[in-house]
Amino acid sequence: MGEAVEEEASEEQAAEEAPEQAAAEEEGDPLAAPADVAAPPADAEKTESGLASKVLKEGTGTEHPTATSTVRAHYTGWTTDGEMFDSSVKRGQPLTMPLNRVIAGWTEGVQLMVEGEKRRFWIPQDLAYKGAPGAPAGMLVFDVELIEIVE
């Protein structure tokens, strides 16, 4: 009987936590792993390279950066099991970087964006860190907000 009580308590706890996690995502908690972190949804845009993306917030800009543009952006990155591995949002400081000095998935993906846009990217390993030691492996998921095309 003790096991049944523990199982019931565990189920109740899980039921209580699930709405909290869903609420955090709905409220836009930028650090919470998105529900679709494991794989891109059917309505995600896909490029020939294997990059998938979905617009989360429309931008206000009209121009797209080029592969050599320097941009200022906020981002959060997760592995497909939901582990956050990096976030400019958490640090409270957007990143300014030239697009030709980041992973290939970022170079390709951010060129699809306009200023003010927020997009989720599913970046295959061959467009990410390619198995480099110390870097997250496998497909990576990034939420990126393009704040400004600097140059």
UniProtKB/TrEMBL annotation:
At the top of the EC hierarchy, this enzyme's class is isomerase
Q: Which reaction does it catalyse?
A: [protein]-peptidylproline (omega=180) = [protein]-peptidylproline (omega=0)
A GO term, aspect molecular function: peptidyl-prolyl cis-trans isomerase activity
Composition skew (Low complexity), residue ranges? 30-42
Biased-composition ranges for Acidic residues?
Answer: 1-29
Annotated spans, Disordered:
1-73
Mind telling me which PROSITE patterns this protein's record contains? FKBP_PPIASE
Q: What is its EC number?
A: 5.2.1.8
The record's listing under Pfam families reads: FKBP_C
* InterPro entries linked: PPIase_dom_sf (IPR046357), PPIase_FKBP_dom (IPR001179)
Keywords, A to Z, come to: Isomerase, Rotamase
Q: Which residues form a coiled coil?
A: none
All copies of the PPIase FKBP-type domain together span 68-150
The source's domain of life comes to Bacteria
Belongs to which family?
Answer: Belongs to the FKBP-type PPIase family.
What's the protein called, per UniProt? Peptidyl-prolyl cis-trans isomerase
From which organism does this entry originate?
Lujinxingia vulgaris
